């Protein structure tokens, strides 16, 4: 749960709770595999992992809700707005200009929402590695 909060803030917990009402096993799979195993692996820092996630979601071209959450998550773990925009623009070469355009408009909404929101308390730090 600490990794989920570190990456997504409250939005991840809200998604997990909503899924828990209809498909608790699916919520557990996302939590345990996605955040417990994949996002916790060594080899890439969270910033790099989240930028890769943004790129993958742009390439899908049909994951607006997830792209919104993960653009915010990339910012939460240290990616800059400029890096997010550059990753999205890079995807125009591989996913097409319509997918990149849609993603840039989603990023614009995420950035605007952050500008309008009062500063939040930082998420709890991840527990120290064993």
Number of strand segments:
0
Question: In this structure, how is the largest beta sheet organized?
Answer: none
| Rg (C-alpha, Å) | 15 Å
Binned strand content: under 5%
Distance between the termini: 17 Å
**Structural class label:** mainly alpha
| Element pattern in H and E | HHHHHHH
Average pLDDT number? 86
What low-confidence regions span 5 or more consecutive residues with pLDDT below 50? none
Q: Residue share in helices?
A: over 70%
Number of separate helices:
7
Shape: globular
Give a structural overview.
The protein has 130 residues and is mostly helical. The two termini are 17 Å apart. The relative contact order is 0.14. The protein is 75% helix and 0% strand. It has seven helices and no strands. Helix 2 packs antiparallel against helix 3 (24-38).
């Amino acid at each position: 749960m600490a990794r989920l909060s570190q990456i997504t803030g409250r939005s991840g917990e809200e998604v997990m709770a909503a899924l828990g009402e209809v498909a608790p096993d699916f919520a557990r799979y996302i939590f345990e595999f996605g955040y417990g195993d994949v996002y916790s692996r060594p080899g890439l820092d969270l910033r790099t992992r989240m930028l890769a996630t943004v790129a993958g979601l742009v390439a899908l071209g049909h994951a607006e809700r997830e792209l919104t959450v993960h653009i915010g998550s990339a910012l939460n773990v240290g990616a800059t707005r400029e890096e997010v925009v550059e990753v999205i623009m890079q995807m125009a070469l591989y996913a097409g200009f319509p997918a990149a355009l849609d993603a840039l408009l989603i990023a614009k909404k995420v950035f605007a929402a952050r500008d309008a929101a009062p500063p939040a308390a930082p998420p709890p730090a991840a527990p120290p590695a064993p």
